[in-house]
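User: Could you check the structure of this?
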Amino acid sequence: MTPTPDKNRAIAAAILPLVGGAGNVTSVAHCMTRLRLALRDRSLVQDEALKALPAVMGVVEDGSTYQIVLGPGTVARVAPEFEALTASGTTADLAARGAALKAAQRSRNATPFKLLLRRVANIFVPLIPALIGCGIIAGLNGLLVNLGRLPVLTPALTAIASGFMALIAVFVGLNTAKEFGGTPILGGAVAAIIVYAGVARIEVFGQQLSPGQGGVLGALAAAALATRVEKWCRRRVPESLDVLVTPTLTVLVSGLITVYGLMFVAGEVSAAIGEAADRLLAGGGAVAGFVLGGLFLPLVMLGLHQALIPLHTTLIEQQGFTLLLPILAMAGAGQVGAAAAVYLRLRHRGDIRRTIRSALPAGLLGVGEPLIYGVSLPLGRPFITACVGGAFGGGFVGLFSMLGNTVGSTAIGPSGWALFPLLDGSGGLSGTTVAIYAGGLLTGYVAGFLATYFFGFSDRMLRDLNTPALSGRSDPGPAATPGAATAPRPATASPSPPPAP
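Assistant: Sure, the predicted structure tokens are below.
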């Protein structure tokens, strides 16, 4: 079971005094399994007490670092909490403001509707690795076909890239039943009806059904219905008959409703989503891209971005790519540009500049949470100007959609530079597609930088924030002395997305 945030903080708080307290820790890092600490005085460490902690699997001393083995997953969650505890001065204040804003936002997001969106996101997030892998293979295969290379291999690559998408409804059914408390295999069995070739012989409302009709939305609805039927049966069927009656009724009842109702309705909804997305960008691409790129980060803050995950998946299933993600990814470009401007404007704030240096590489790869919660959101105005950068980047990509050069992504999850291998569109993975997306990123970087540099700070903010005394000293640059206190690195985003780009 994944430790809760409170448990992560408790683990960090238990470790800190046993390594000599915050004053004895000069730097914090972690690998896949170990919390790696640089210590001023090794003699202050209480080895046996550390080993006795339930969360600690062992300790290792390796040269200049003292390593505490916490295990995969746990260490990535405990390390940011430990860094927060060891922080000092105004850097701690800034990080604490970011953490407080994040916690407050999560609390506000705990409404029934947003919790439902989160559960829907939990259904699709486990599918992202397969979407990414198959998407990259599909892009490689398309490139080989266009170049006329390796014709013996391309049929195999087609099968590898397409097999998952052909059966994605089954995986959605499995995850849906699991998320809503049903038996996963029953949810998958009902969802499998949607992709079964034999449904083509069934007529509903005067129309022949087609395999895959309803797609992932139909699979989600079918598996959710199956879970309700299963729970109803569990409460009423005698235990002696449960193993026979409950699965049979679950598959039969929900299967019939799926065939004679859900597939048709979900098919109409899915078709409407595809048409709406196409019309939105074909008719008002620049304006639509501007609005979507500018509002995506506030949507993330409100938790409403999770509603886009099934929409992305539906578009990928229908068209082979989602044309919304490259536009939304421009929000991350705006953050990068804003962070660069903050770095230049706050020349005497070594603490903030170190935070930006540590978070900027992740931001370029589309992981925006460190920059959002560690820099722009605590500062206030730079968050708004970052959104302006995202809006201009989105408008750039949307403009070319109006001109007939649609840019899409074959998977969800990555953004920033990490999205390049997954690009697709009306021209396939071509130089034009890549150039448009790269141009959008560049536009987002420049617009975010300029908006933040000139409008991200009031004169008073610059006077208050740009005082060397606040951070104790000027920025020492990368070659800081080993004994100097280092800024806490903001927590990186978990593999969820999408998010957010």
